């Protein structure tokens, strides 16, 4: 009888423990969401404070709308089709550009002289007509 009572108590405590652990996990998820949203709110408040600065407002008007101050001259860069280039274009990182070692002009000129003196050997002569056969026609 005692074993049966202990078994029933263990089952009830195990289900209670499982429910407790599930609730703890749910609370941890909710607290993570709360901290994420609080960080988002902080970022938005900082953005709102930036808009109170007249220099920031002027910078954004120049970037977003192309405004210029009185006395300044605005230039628009067009591509070959006459379309306006996007202002989002940026310079590439110099480390990512393919680097080629420059060769002197005389080395390429000398290579062409050597090639002219020793032309590559030609295999079979080309066919007079293209008809799909491999043998030259006569």
Number of strands: 0
N- to C-terminal distance: 112 Å
Estimated radius of gyration:
39 Å
Summarize the biggest pleated sheet: none
Question: How does this model look, in words?
Answer:
It is built from 3 helices and no strands. Helices cover 54% and strands 0% of the residues. It starts with a helix and ends in a 21-residue tail after the last helix. It is flat. With 138 residues, the protein is mainly alpha-helical.
Short summary of the structure?
The mean pLDDT is 84. This protein has helices at residues 2-50, 54-65, 105-117. The termini are far apart.
What topology does this entry show?
Elements: H1 2-50, H2 54-65, H3 105-117
What descriptive keywords fit this protein?
3 helices; 138 residues; flat
């Amino acid at each position: 009888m005692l074993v049966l009572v202990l078994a029933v108590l263990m089952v009830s405590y195990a289900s209670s423990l499982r429910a407790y652990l599930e609730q703890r996990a749910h609370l941890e998820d909710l607290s993570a969401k709360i901290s994420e949203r609080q960080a988002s709110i902080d970022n938005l408040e900082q953005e709102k404070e930036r808009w109170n600065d007249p220099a920031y407002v002027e910078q954004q008007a120049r970037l977003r709308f192309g405004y210029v101050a009185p006395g300044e001259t605005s230039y628009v860069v067009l591509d070959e089709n006459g379309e306006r280039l996007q202002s989002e274009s940026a310079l590439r990182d110099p480390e990512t550009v393919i680097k080629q070692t420059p060769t002197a002009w005389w080395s390429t000129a000398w290579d062409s002289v050597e090639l002219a003196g020793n032309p590559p050997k030609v295999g079979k002569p080309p066919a007079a007509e293209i008809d799909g056969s491999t043998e030259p026609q006569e």
